[in-house]
Specification:
Order of helices and strands of chain B: HHHHHHEEHHHHHHHHHH
Low-confidence stretches of chain A: none
Shape of chain B: globular
Number of domains of chain A: 1
Number of helices of chain B: 16
Shape of chain A: flat
Mean pLDDT of chain A: 90
Largest interface: A-B, 49 and 68 residues
CATH superfamily of chain A: Cytochrome c oxidase, subunit III, four-helix bundle
Number of helices of chain A: 6
Low-confidence stretches of chain B: 592-600
Distance between the termini of chain B: 63 Å
CATH architecture of chain A: Up-down Bundle
Structural class of chain B: mainly alpha
Number of strands of chain A: 0
Helix content of chain B: 55-70%
Mean pLDDT of chain B: 91
Structural class of chain A: mainly alpha
CATH class of chain A: Mainly Alpha
Oligomer: heterodimer
Number of strands of chain B: 2
CATH topology of chain A: Four Helix Bundle (Hemerythrin (Met), subunit A)
Order of helices and strands of chain A: HHHHHH
Strand content of chain B: under 5%
Amino acid sequence: MSFWRNVTEKSWERPGEADELHSGVILEQPTRRMALRVFLCVVASVFFLLFVAYRIRMEYPDWRPLPLPSVLWLNTVLLVLASAVMQWTRSQVEKANPGPLRAGMVVSGLLTVGFVVGQWVAWSQLGAEGYALRSNPANAFFYLLTAVHGAHVLGGLWVWLRATLRAFRKDGAATVQGSVQLCATYWHFLLLVWLVMLYFLLTT
Amino acid sequence: MAYVAIADRDHEAHLHDPDTFITKYIWSQDHKVIAIQYGLTAIGIGLVALVLSGLMRLQLGFPDTFSFIDPNDYYQFITMHGMIMVIYLLTALFLGGFGNYLIPLMIGSRDMVFPFMNMLSFWVYLLAVLILVASFFVPGGPTGAGWTLYPPQAISPGTPGTTWGIILMLVSLAVFIIAFTMGGLNYVTTVLQARCKGMTLMRMPLSIWGIFMATILGLLAFPALLVSAIMMILDSLLGTSFFMPAMLAAGEIASYEGGSPILFQHLFWFFGHPEVYIVALPAFGIVSDLLSVHARKNIFGYRMMVWAILAIGGLSFIVWAHHMYVSGMNPYFGFFFATTTLIIAVPTAIKVYNWVLTLWRGNIHLTVPMLFAIGFIFTFVHGGLTGLFLGNVVVDLPLSDTYFVVGHFHMVMGVSPILVVFGAIYHWFPKITGRMFNETLGKWHFWLTLLGTYSIYLPMHYLGILGVPRRYYAYGTTDFIPESAMTMNTGITISALIVAVVQLIFLYNMIWSVFRGPKADPNPWKATSLEWLTPDTPPKHGNWGPDLPVVYRWAYDYSVPGAAEDYIPQNQPPDATHKTVDDHAEAVEQAPQDDGAPQA
């Protein structure tokens, strides 16, 4: 039943018969995936508002854009690869082929750790060049945006760590399928956020 | 892996079984216990805010009398009163309290879908409350920036609580938002995924619709508060200039430059306006159910009620700048927001008409919950109409900084939701505790509260039209505030103190009844919705015994023509109704023959 039919039902007209009862579910997907999607809406709201604030603050005359360290491009590649490997692992697991599960999880996780380290390198490069947090709003926004994004990546890595440890248990593969799917969705989402953020950081 | 609806899973009855006192009542994952924990914490901190308002009224009603209230204290009282009432009391009580209690019971589920996260949500909320309370005890005291926390004054010297208070406030808000997000994910997912068999969306009671939509609003709006809290903490602690402009502070050039206080206002009200509906929508939903049950009549225009909830929820995101008319905005911008603000009155008015039409020719039982529900219609219409005044830019500009606004928003967002909170507590008290409250005390509580709050807030509108400014600690002597206005202020204070004391009746009634009240019938109001049909009262862990309920009809089958009783529970199959209808018809046919011939 479509959402529209769901919310236009004239529920008072006729009580249902036992064999035609609605199952009580309108969106057929596992509960955890549903919750993750709702959560991603919340996170999207956080970043949307940060981007809006960024655009508004940018118009003020004291805004001095800072040069982006080139390591950010490497980081972007790492995150794209992490997301791609995660997706590949997921598709293998969904095809009931648990062989590459452990390798896939480890590789995508390490790529993501590489991304975090790279972000840290970018921060220290900027710091060494004198782009302090408080010296200009453009700097402050750069640090704030990357920190909030990084915090979400670290949160994802915590879930990844638990799932990967479980995958390495004896016959753990069967229990992590759901986690791999959730991780993949979350990784794609964070990649998307990162790309949008990079666009905003480049167009100052 | 094929998806199996939660209601169809056979291992569904398997739940963790709490056996010790700690797992049952402290670290409980049972939504009902968590709801009570949320509710008691919210009411506890709400009482603090009530005392603060009493102190403010003392100062306003009897200036130069109380030496222990200085201007700084007064601003701290205002700030903490507003913030606690709006967020830590109303939001937490409606969603954490009633949301937790009612969602699983009303939709026929055993619990929330993530019970552990639900438990965590409460404990993180408690942490937020404790951080907030801690700010009363730090050097400098709590922040006195006003509940809107506008920069630059929120973190500039001269405002009380700029050393510790504001930081604790912002951290507490951030922690609260984390707690709310954990709870909110539960409420939304549970409503969407864990309804029992037969419970279509449009068979859900309106309470659930209101709580559901309010949760979605909260999930999307609280991030704005989170973002602005983080940025303000950075401005305050690390000296960034997100919001802080170049300025002189206490005679010295501050180290900030170029920040935008207006940006904060936009972010704050992008959260702040939906927040009004985060509080109002659950109240709308609950009041609809109270009116329908106690008027023994189906809710008028159920679909319109649902759509109005959805429409109000959507519109609430595009009206925020009507709180900022005085910030000096582009006239076209103001025009846009005035228009959307007035448009939101349409679905709201639909709801009000439908409540009144639900009462019309109903079999009205003036029980305590019903009194509060009807009282809500009065206060809400009152507060809503003054909202139409303030929604217009030209009317808002002169009135914005006066007591008219105080009267308006306390009517619409203070008194109205609180009346629903009381009505809802009285209504579900027999289910929550298994005992009845004292009806007489309940009625006293209602009449004194309703008339008392009217005598507080109605005169404030007159003060506002006179031009008496709000937020002032003392007025001294001015030409435009006549002596009679000061007398009125004293009268308002006396009413406020009476109303505050009257709440002790409520507390006494509740506490006494929990222990000494007469045993309640499982369904004392003869209501149709599922929470009244549990095998145990109060419901045990898991709610439903071995089998989940099955729902055959909507939640408002009251006074159905031909039915044997004036209500048909949601879980009654249609054949059974036909049978009772037939039995009833037979009984009516046979009735004349039975006249005067009593049988053994």
